[in-house]
Write a structure and sequence with these properties.
Layout: H1 5-29, H2 49-58, H3 64-82, H4 89-95, H5 98-108, H6 116-176, H7 183-200, H8 202-210, H9 215-222
Helix pairs in contact: 1-2, 1-3, 1-6, 2-3, 3-6, 5-6, 6-7, 6-8
Length: about 220
């Protein structure tokens, strides 16, 4: 029996590239930075590929049409990897539901596929489309993360500056009241300064804002 190892090897190669890219995309969106500490998205067996793309759909990374395209690629992957009788695209497509076959031909062969060479081209068009989708989603999360980190840096700078300026103002007021002769007024101003400094708690808050962008805080705020 001709099992067409050349064709199967190509399907496996494309599928593994997609599965790895999908896994990396999920890690980015779930903010998992260390694969050695995850049970589902590391090098060991975790959740299935189907579950992973469904999860990307559930968290609004993939829309309905994009999910269908990725699933269609996996139809080829599963059939060629798990059923020895499929040694060509023609055999496989003839066995698929006609609606699936027709949609494949419509989307990836402009509705004109009719032989093995055409189907092979259509599969590569499908594969390239899946890669395009994944790259687009990766660029999207990179852009989103960078913009949010920039905002956090600005927020950190602004709040830090506000605290430092407030501390300087408090110091200036303490110097100014030295020239006030009215003891009652001086006492009231000093009391208000102490209340303000206690409420602001400069030392603690400046330390917090200086550490505002540590990994854990950024990961929480990026969600």
């Amino acid at each position: 029996m001709d099992i067409n190892l050349v064709l199967r090897s190509k399907i496996v190669h494309c599928s593994l590239n997609v599965e790895n890219a999908i896994n990396e995309l999920l890690l980015r969106y779930l903010l998992i930075t260390d694969k050695s500490k995850t049970k589902n998205f590391g090098n060991k067996a975790g959740i299935s590929f189907k579950n992973k793309i469904d999860l990307l759909y559930d968290i609004d990374v993939l829309d309905k049409d994009e999910l269908y395209i990725v699933e269609l690629l996996m139809v080829f992957r599963n059939k060629f990897l798990h059923d020895i009788k499929y040694s060509s695209f023609t055999l496989l497509l003839d066995d698929l539901d006609s609606s699936v076959k027709n949609k494949f031909i419509k989307l990836f062969l402009d509705g004109k596929g009719e032989n093995e060479e055409d189907y092979d081209k259509g599969f590569m068009n499908l594969y390239e489309k899946v890669v395009e989708i994944i790259n687009s989603k990766t660029e999207e999360i990179n852009s989103y993360s960078n913009k949010k980190i920039d905002f956090l840096k600005f927020q950190n700078y602004f709040l830090n500056t506000l605290l430092v300026e407030s501390l300087d103002l408090s110091g200036d007021l303490n110097k100014m009241i030295l020239g006030i002769n009215d003891n009652d007024l001086k006492e009231q101003i000093q009391k208000r300064i102490i209340q303000f400094e206690t409420k602001v708690n400069y030392k603690e808050n400046i330390e917090i804002f200086n550490n505002y962008l540590n990994d854990n805080i950024v990961k929480l705020l990026l969600k």
